């Protein structure tokens, strides 16, 4: 079943996701760090470390949003980082951030759909996605496109929410995620749906082995899943 942000609208998931991120973009960074108590920053660092051994020169950050994962990838000293996203609102907050931090000559943010990437085959040494794949309208199509633009021997790193399994953490976390987070998110972002969509989309996302199975199916090798913080998030990797 497809989980939509705005259930009363009949537009496609992709358009709804773009509209939702446009709407919350001014508050996105603040809410991300606030609602995760800053853990998201550590997760991005850990995910980027998965690329240290291949020393990528060209990196593509898919669903880049306001560019935080792309910025973190600069720790690898690449020659080029490109970020793509379908939300102009998120990209414009990201561009402002890059300008302020004088990083706009190192990272290029472009409008682009993960399911139809505007790049040639085998162009990138590494593909990275943080908290993006869960929002794709067609997950397998998005992953197939990533595989296409990655060079043979290149590595994909996906960071995404997953579902904690151990008692009593699972119960405590579910209470926070389903009750507290949507209330605070709605209050601050003023978007009624966005922070209800978040737990719903995490619940329906094929996490853990189900996700590495899909990565295998689209062609990736040596796929792995590394759970973070008792399974709230996971890092998935694969090689082309
Ligand atoms: C939760 S944000 C993550 C942003 C950023 N990667 C981060 O770590 O903060 C998810 C992003 O995915 C983007 N997105 C969703 N579907 C997409 C698609 N089909 N193609 C490109 N971007 C997409 C949204 O617009 C949004 O900016």
TrEMBL record:
One Pfam assignment: Ubie_methyltran
Enzyme nomenclature, EC number: 2.1.1.163
HAMAP family in the record: MenG_UbiE_methyltr
UniProt enzyme class: transferase
Binding site for S-adenosyl-L-methionine: 66, 85, 113-114
Substrates-to-products reaction catalysed: a 2-demethylmenaquinol + S-adenosyl-L-methionine = a menaquinol + S-adenosyl-L-homocysteine + H(+)
Keyword annotations of the record: Menaquinone biosynthesis, Methyltransferase, S-adenosyl-L-methionine, Transferase
Any GO molecular function: demethylmenaquinone methyltransferase activity
Origin species: Marivirga atlantica
The protein's name in its UniProt record: Demethylmenaquinone methyltransferase
Role: Methyltransferase required for the conversion of demethylmenaquinol (DMKH2) to menaquinol (MKH2).
Organismal lineage: Bacteria, Pseudomonadati, Bacteroidota, Cytophagia, Cytophagales
GO terms of biological process kind: menaquinone biosynthetic process; methylation
Pathway stated in the Swiss-Prot or TrEMBL entry: Quinol/quinone metabolism; menaquinone biosynthesis; menaquinol from 1,4-dihydroxy-2-naphthoate: step 2/2
Family: Belongs to the class I-like SAM-binding methyltransferase superfamily. MenG/UbiE family.
NCBIfam families attached to this UniProt entry: MenG_MenH_UbiE (TIGR01934), PRK00216.1-5 (NF001244)
Organism superkingdom: Bacteria
